[in-house]
Amino acid sequence: METQPLLPSRGVSRSRLALLKTAVVSVVLVAAIAALLSYSGSLWRSRSVHSPVRGPSFDGDGRPGRLPVMGYNTWNAYYCDINEDKILKTARLMKSLGLLDLGYNYVNVDDCYSEKQRNSNGDIVEDPEKFPSGMRTLTDKIHDMGFKAGIYSDSGWFTCQIYPGSFQNEDRDIKLFRDNWNFDLLKYDNCAIPFDNVIKEGMVGKFQRMADAIDNLSKNTGRPPILFSLCQWGEEQPWLWAKKISQTWRTTEDIGANWRSVMDILNRNSFITWANDFYSHNDMDMLEVGNGELSYEEAKTHFTAWALLKSPLLVGTDLPSASEETLSILKNEEIIAINQDPVVGASISPFRWGINPDWTYNATHPAQFWSGESENGTVIMLLNTLDEPADLTFNLTESPWLRAGRQYSVRDLWTHTDNDTAVRTFTAHAVPAHGVVALLLRDAGDEPEGLWPPCMRLNWCMAENGTRYDGRDFMEL
Ligand SMILES: *[C@@H]1O[C@H](CO)[C@@H](O)[C@H](O)[C@H]1NC(C)=O
Ligand SMILES: *[C@@H]1O[C@H](CO)[C@@H](O)[C@H](O)[C@H]1NC(C)=O
Ligand SMILES: *[C@@H]1O[C@H](CO)[C@@H](O)[C@H](O)[C@H]1NC(C)=O
Ligand SMILES: *[C@@H]1O[C@H](CO)[C@@H](O)[C@H](O)[C@H]1NC(C)=O
Ligand SMILES: *[C@@H]1O[C@H](CO)[C@@H](O)[C@H](O)[C@H]1NC(C)=O
Ligand SMILES: *[C@@H]1O[C@H](CO)[C@@H](O)[C@H](O)[C@H]1NC(C)=O
Fold this sequence. Notes:
Distance between the termini: 74 Å
CATH architecture of the largest domain: Alpha-Beta Barrel
Strand content: 15-25%
CATH topology of the largest domain: TIM Barrel
Helix content: 25-40%
Shape: elongated
EC number: 3.2.1.22
Number of domains: 2
Number of helices: 12
Structural class: alpha/beta
Strand order of the largest sheet: 7-6-5-4-3-2-1-8
GO molecular function: alpha-galactosidase activity
Radius of gyration: 28 Å
InterPro entries: Aldolase_TIM, GH, Glyco_hydro_27, Glyco_hydro_b, Melibiase_C
Bound molecules: 2-acetamido-2-deoxy-beta-D-glucopyranose
Keywords: Disulfide bond, Glycosidase, Hydrolase, Membrane, Signal, Transmembrane, Transmembrane helix
Catalytic activity: Hydrolysis of terminal, non-reducing alpha-D-galactose residues in alpha-D-galactosides, including galactose oligosaccharides, galactomannans and galactolipids
CATH superfamily of the largest domain: Aldolase class I
C-alpha cells in the first residue's frame, strides 16, 4: 500500500513534535482509508472468506437434480443464432419425435438471449427482436407443452459472448430468472472473471455467491430452488466443491463434434467417476450426436459413455434436419434407463484400461473396460479405441460387481437381444473401430460344477487344508 512519506522530501528542518504530529495524522488517515475500503467491500461481499463451502438448505418436495438432466440446449446447434420461434419449434419436435416421453424434459436457452446492456433499473432484458413475446411467454409455452425450461448466465462481469453477467447482481438476477421468467434451471458460466483484488473469494466464492442467492430466494418464497448447473470447465476441480453447491457441473472444456474431443473428455472423466451420485453429476458437456465429424459408431459410443457415466443428456443437434440414425441413438430406451436409474446414482468406472496400463492418462486411448451397478444388474461398457475392429474379452471377476462362482445372463443394450449366458469370461467379437458394447449382466445361478482353475483370481487361491493353488497345481506352504 502507498503511504505519505513521514519526512518531508526536501531539506526543511522540523521540530520533533511536528514530526510526531505528522506520523500520528498519517497513521489515523491510513487506518481510516483501510476501514472505509473494507466497509465498502462488505457492502457486496456477504460471505466470510474463511467459511467452508455451504450446500443448499432446501430438502422438501421438488428438490431438483436427483437424476442427470435430460433435454435440449440451443448452443451446439445454433450458438448465438436463437429466437423464440426456433426454440418453440424445437420444443414441438422434442415432443412429436417422442423425445419428451423418453425423459428429455428440459428445453434450455443458452447464451445470447439478452440485450447487451441492463436497463435503467439494472435488470437484464431479453432481446426484443429475438424474443418479441418476452421470456415469460416463452416459458409459459414451454411449460404448457410439458417441459421444464432452462436459462443461462455467467458468474463474472459478462457472459462468454459479452452479454451481462450476474457478478454482484446475483439476488436481482435469480429473482428475474426464477420468479419473473419462471425458469427451472440455471446454467452458470465462467467467463469475464473479475480481477483478484475485486473478487477476493477465488473460484469457489464466485459460484457460492449465486448458490447463496438461489438458497435465499427459495427460503423467502418457499418454492424449490432452481436447478443449478455449473459451467466451470474443470479447471479448479469442481468435482470437489461444486458438488456441495450445485447439482451438476462441467468437468472439462467445451466438447467438439469429433472423436478426439469425445475421447479426451471420457479420459478425463474416467478418473473422477466417484463424484457421481444422486443430486451430484459430472457434466461431460452437451451431446454432439448428429453433429460434425462423428460417424454412426462414434456417436453411439459418445452417447453410451455419457449416459452410463451419469452425465446430463442434452440434445444439441438441429432437430428439423436430424437423421433417423441420429434419432435412433438418442432414443435408445435401455441406455437412457441406466442414466435415469432411480435406485443407483453411481456411474460406471473402469476396471481395466486395456491397451494401456491401468490408470494411464491418455487422451486418445482412454480406459476400455467399464462396469457399474444398476437396479437390474451389472452394467458393462466395452470400448474399441482402435482404428480397426477388435475382440474385447474380460473375466467376470475383474468387475467388483460380478460374483465369483456364479454365471450371468447377458443382455445387449444396443441390439436389444438376450445373448448367451456368460460363464467366467465374455468376449465381444469384432467390435467396430471406435465402437461400443453395452451389456446388462444378470445373475443366472451357480456356475457349472468342476470348472478349472478353482479360482479365477489366482492370487492367494487356497484349499481348506492350507495348500495354495499357484496356477498349475497345489503346493504345500
Ligand atoms: C441471504 O440471506 C441472509 C439472511 O437473510 C443474508 O445475510 C445474506 O446476505 C443473503 N445472501 C445473499 C447472497 O443474498
Ligand atoms: C429395469 O427393468 C425394468 C423392467 O424391464 C425397466 O422398466 C427399468 O427401466 C430397468 N431399469 C434400468 C436401470 O435399466
Ligand atoms: C496413448 O496410447 C496410445 C496407445 O497405447 C499410444 O500409441 C500413444 O502414444 C499414447 N499417447 C500418449 C500421449 O502417451
Ligand atoms: C448379441 O446378439 C446379437 C444377435 O445375435 C448380436 O448381433 C450381437 O452382436 C450380440 N452381442 C454381443 C456383444 O456379442
Ligand atoms: C482371465 O482368467 C484367466 C484364467 O484364470 C487368466 O489366465 C487371465 O489372465 C485372466 N485375464 C485377465 C485379463 O484377468
Ligand atoms: C489339499 O487340498 C487340495 C484341493 O482339494 C488337494 O488337491 C491336495 O491334495 C490336498 N493336499 C493335502 C496335503 O491334503
